[in-house]
């Protein structure tokens, strides 16, 4: 089977590599010629565990190719996946320029039946709109070529994208013709043989499922963070509360962990996009709006704890930040807690020492418009260097090395042994024994 995947971001690179791994011949396309040139040499522009090795192997085996010329390869493929960015604008609506331009190139160049599949996250109704754009291009050419549109939303999470793609919780395919369904069934046959769930729906429902999954997760996370904050006030232990409710029918068993807020490209933007789509249709997503509101506050929780600990006297203090992203194993800092924290810390006159295993360059890029404000931020070479002379450590990301540190080295390097843990990874008793003042989300020693 031959497919094209347009877009070489996380979604495009991961899905094209994984399709190739399943034995499909894939051409991955991007408008960015420089990116294509380096991908052809086996260089990867993003950090994603296992991606480089799998991509290079499939390139060597001849199942994965890269090009900037979509028009030229359309005769060779049966399916075109569109995985270009459809990022939110300031009003929370998607920018569909890229998606629609891929649709136009598709309509201007197909000469035989081909399926156009929306893999990007797009507002409900977009895939059918794409169908109309393609038909308009065919009419303009004065040709009658049959095609179908379909929607195959992607649920992968940056940092575990390969695993999420190869072992999905579900594969959702929105199709409205037997021919398209037959092609998509052929593509995912291996997945079906391995008992992964492939759910066929109509097209708008497939688009809606993507937003619903992200929004349910956001709601659960914010709900649990609300519970954690209340636990702290009434003296309950949120970790015990989690253990007690986990796995029950009402609670499920995922994302029931308190934290310093959710974020990340895709997930957090999906939530905003669904709220916006509802508003565009004259209705309100009240629960989701509340989940968003809780999340906005939750991103400030670590700062509030620091502020309370030092009774507001933060000017001239030095604080370490471990982790810059919402999830480990990724450079994705979008909509995350660290940027909110950095802003609060810098404005409060705090010197910040930061360390992240992979996201330091991304952080420099994002902070470059901050100008003089970044002078109080020091980029450190490792997690212990970040602790030198600090008055507190704020743990933001759940990277494994942060979860099992060398406590002796921590004690040696920190000026004040105050740790605020935004991922609840340490044992409170052990921290106490080591002489740390330790606070988590939903736990405060001083209670
Ligand atoms: N990143 C995630 O975790 C994630 C997860 C699920 C869904 N999504 C959705 O998938 C889509 C892609 O996300 P991403 O993170 O891979 O995006 P990205 O921004 O990292 O990459 C998009 C790529 O598309 C290319 N592109 C843009 N317009 C193009 C065009 N007209 N023709 C060819 N290439 C073009 C860009 O050059 C870029 O390389 C988005 O809609 C996103 O919301 C993302």
Condensed summary:
It contains 19 helices and 15 strands. It is of the alpha/beta class. The longest helix is centred in the middle third of the chain and has 32 residues, at 203-234.
Describe the protein.
- This protein has 19 helices and 15 strands.
- The protein has 447 residues and is of the alpha/beta class.
- The chain has 3 domains: 2-201, Rossmann fold; 211-296, N-(1-d-carboxylethyl)-l-norvaline Dehydrogenase, domain 2; 298-444, Rossmann fold, CATH 3.40.50.
- The protein starts with a strand and ends with a strand.
- The relative contact order is 0.09.
- Bound molecules: nicotinamide-adenine-dinucleotide (NAD).
- Residues 6-12, 29-32, 35, 83-86, 98, 101-102, 120-121, 154, 156, 158, 265-266 line the site of nicotinamide-adenine-dinucleotide (NAD).
Helicity, as a percent range: 40-55%
- CATH level 1 name of the largest domain: Alpha Beta
Total number of beta strands:
15
CATH superfamily of the largest domain: NAD(P)-binding Rossmann-like Domain
Q: Uncertain segments of ≥5 residues (pLDDT<50)? A: none
Alpha-beta classification: alpha/beta
Bound molecules: nicotinamide-adenine-dinucleotide
What fraction strand? 5-15%
Mean pLDDT: 93
Strands in their spatial order, largest beta sheet: 11-10-9-12-13-14-15
Q: For the record, give the distance between the C-alpha atoms at the N and C termini, rounded to a whole number.
A: 62 Å
Which outline best applies?
A: elongated
Tally of contiguous helical segments: 19
Please tell me the total number of domains: 3
Q: What is the CA-based Rg, rounded?
A: 24 Å
CATH architecture of the largest domain: 3-Layer(aba) Sandwich
Main sheet record:
7 strands, mixed
Which topology of the largest domain does CATH recognise? Rossmann fold
């Amino acid at each position: 089977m031959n497919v094209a995947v347009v877009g070489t971001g996380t979604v495009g690179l991961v899905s094209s590599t994984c399709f190739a791994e399943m034995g499909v011949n894939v051409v991955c396309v991007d408008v960015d010629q420089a990116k294509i040139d380096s991908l052809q040499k086996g260089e990867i522009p993003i950090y994603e565990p296992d991606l480089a090795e799998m991509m290079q192997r499939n390139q060597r085996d001849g199942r994965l190719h890269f090009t900037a010329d979509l028009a030229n390869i359309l005769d060779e493929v049966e399916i075109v996946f569109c995985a270009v960015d459809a990022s939110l604008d300031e009003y929370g609506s998607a920018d569909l320029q890229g998606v629609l331009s891929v649709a136009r190139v598709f309509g201007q160049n197909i000469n035989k039946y081909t399926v156009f599949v929306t893999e990007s996250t797009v507002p409900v109704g977009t895939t059918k709109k794409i169908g109309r754009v393609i038909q308009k291009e065919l009419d303009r050419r004065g040709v009658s070529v049959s095609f179908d549109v379909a929607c195959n939303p992607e649920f992968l999470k940056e940092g575990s994208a390969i695993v999420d793609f190869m072992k999905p919780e579900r594969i959702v395919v929105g199709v409205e013709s037997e021919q398209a369904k037959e092609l998509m069934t052929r593509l995912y046959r291996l997945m079906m043989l391995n008992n992964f769930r492939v759910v066929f729906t109509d097209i708008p429902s497939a688009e809606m499922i993507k937003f619903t999954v992200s929004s349910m997760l956001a709601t659960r996370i914010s709900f649990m963070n609300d519970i954690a904050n209340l636990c702290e006030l009434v003296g309950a232990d949120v970790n015990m509360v989690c253990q007690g409710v986990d796995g029950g029918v009402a609670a499920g068993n995922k994302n029931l962990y308190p934290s310093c807020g959710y974020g990340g490209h895709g997930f957090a933007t999906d939530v905003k996009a669904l709220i916006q789509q509802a508003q565009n249709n004259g209705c309100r997503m009240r629960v989701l709006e509340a989940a968003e509101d809780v999340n906005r506050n939750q991103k400030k929780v670590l700062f509030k704890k620091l502020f309370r600990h030092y009774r507001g006297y933060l000017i001239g203090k030095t604080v370490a930040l471990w982790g810059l992203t919402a999830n480990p194993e990724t450079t994705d800092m979008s909509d995350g807690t660290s940027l909110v924290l950095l802003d609060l810390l810098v404005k409060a006159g705090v010197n910040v020492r930061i360390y992240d295993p992979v996201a330091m360059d991304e952080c420099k890029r994002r902070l470059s418009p901050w100008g003089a404000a970044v002078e109080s931020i020091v980029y450190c070479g490792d997690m212990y260097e970040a602790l030198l002379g600090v008055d507190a450590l704020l743990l933001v990301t759940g990277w494994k090395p942060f979860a099992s540190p060398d406590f002796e080295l921590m004690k040696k390097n920190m000026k004040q042994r105050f740790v605020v843990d935004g991922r609840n990874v340490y044992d409170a008793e052990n921290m106490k024994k080591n002489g740390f003042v330790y606070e988590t989300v939903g736990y405060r020693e001083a209670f």
